[in-house]
Design brief:
six-stranded mixed β-barrel, alpha/beta, binds iron/sulfur cluster, about 675 residues, Dimethylsulfoxide Reductase, domain 2, seven-stranded mixed beta sheet, Rossmann fold, 4 domains, NADH dehydrogenase (ubiquinone) activity, 2 iron, 2 sulfur cluster binding, about 30% helix, single chain
Length: about 675
Amino acid sequence: FRPWEVKRVRTTCPHCAVGCQYDLLVKENRIVGVDAAPGSPTNEGLLCVKGRFGSYQFVHSGDRLRHPLIKENGAFRRASWDEALDLVASRMKGIQEQYGRDSVGGFSCSRATNEDNYAFQKLMRAGLGTNNVDNCARVCHSASVHGLATTLGSGAMTNPMADITEDVDVILLVGSNPTEAHPVMGARIRRAVRRGTKLIVVDPRKIDLTEGCALHLQIKPGTNVAFANGMLNVILSEGLEDRDFIQNRTEGFEALREIVAEYTPERVGEICHIDPDGLRAAARMYAAARKAPIIYCLGVTEHSTGTEGVMALSNLAMAVGKLGRSGCGVNPLRGQNNVQGACDMGALPYQYPGYQKVTDPAVREKFEKAWGLPLSPNDGLTSTEMLALSARGERIHGLFIFGEDPMVSDPDTAHVRRALENLDFLVVDELFMTETAQLADVVLPGVSYAEKEGTFTNTERRQMRVRKAVSLEGEMRQDYDIFAEVETRLGHPCRYESAAAIYDEIASLTPSFGGLSHARLDAGEDLAWPCPAKDHPGTPILHVGKFARGLGWFYPARYRPSAELPDGDYPLMMVTGRMLYHYNTRAMTGRAEGICQVVNESYIEISSRDAAALGVAHGDRVKVSSRRGELETTARVGDKVGDGEVFMTFHFPDGNVNKVTNAVTDDIAHIPEYKVCAVRVSKL
Ligand code: SF4
């Protein structure tokens, strides 16, 4: 194309939560390319391979769903909107009449806009009268939401990306592989290291950033709490703590001090399989630094002790006074582009938008007044609880899944299939006929980010505009219109004028969003919540001067081993993660030809020693089995994983690691333990 022939539409990348800004290049209602936005604070003109090549071909893919579908006698047939929406409303209502109000639930979409997420949770709460609504944060960062809210008062990243990668002395990177999962953030960290920042990598695998780091603590998977307590043990025994900060800004320190005394470097060395002197060096480096952020990701959260792992890290930061100021903090890198926003918008079973509790009578009264009907006073169920109940044939009989594909993304695929097949009724709103959509009774065609107006909230709580670049084809409808139509058919009339009007409704009900509007964002303002008033500049750094909960709380965290450890039958420990080229279930990147030419099949990383013992060579096909299932994939032999450990991604339906992962969850946030399960590998 010739540059003057294309229209440029500034929007936000739909993949990871860095939230890179770019222009979609549009010619004759088709996206023909992507150009990074120069000078954007999130990406400074950078884009990764997913943003540049994997974020537009899927929009025009020939297999996009374009009409409602109803399953009859095991096969889908095209249906009119009225027919499909009437059926959704009547079946959901019928199930509630038979089994009770809370026999239905909904999974909202962490890739959809704030406005769509708000409309979806409102459909569940006002239309169906249940708080059984959740989003995929449940399976990635719910441990952060619960953990940081408990100890600090807010479950979000404390500092902006630029603030924790520029002019900082030390970065403590725990269970995070940003060059693959958040590539532009990875580039920022790499640049910081080049400029002299000392990087401590705490990760069971060798990752790209291990090269050039000051220290790599290759801890055994599932030992994060022991690691953090060990760091604290060194800090307290050497008097490196910030006594003023502990005294003036926190509570619960003495109880934690007693526990931490048990975690000597030698004991932690044994638990974590690391050198005690390495732990001592890391603790001294982190404590002594003027500016030292903790950055972490799913290697901390996706464990049966995930929430405690998060709280152990906030203990560490509080003990050295590295919170509430520039260049520090506890910083979860959120995974999906709008997983922060899906949580902010109340697609959670315990909270309305803005983390306002559904059990708080004053809050509930506010929403009842605004929405004009009584609301459920009870906490709802998490997505993992809903699936577990349905798999056992208990309590949950109807589900509405918006833009999620748990058949690929959730642990223990056989368990997910059982749960979805047990339902009396499943409706799925999706872009494509995914593995989950194939099991549905009604499939509604969803709308991609390039066809809608709205906002995403990136990992820094920053509000990012999403703009419509191409118009919807045929009879397709905006997702929030679909939800409003179902809500209306359920007896609660609902209609939205526009995405901007929904954002205004959100602002009117959500104190932390009170000053936000599309108009302010379109005028070029750079705003991170909390932003309570129209003249408020937003809050890039949380907990300055005072924690959101008042005093920060030291949680008394004790190490417990993972739920399933290797044994004679399943002797290897499986660790899961992401790769650079593909994004989650591959619905988007799997339709980008160039990306698929680079990599389009699964693999398993195995150490040279383990491979030799099994008679497996690099490139061999192998079978991987666990107590839950088995898969076939290709071996990559090398030194990225330690002996006794193997690694796979979950991007590929064939060879999807979730056939073998464990659906056991943490007791607090109900997040599954994707990161550790026991497997056997054999040559095919
Ligand atoms: Fe940026 Fe993430 Fe998109 Fe890559 S995938 S361009 S890092 S937002």
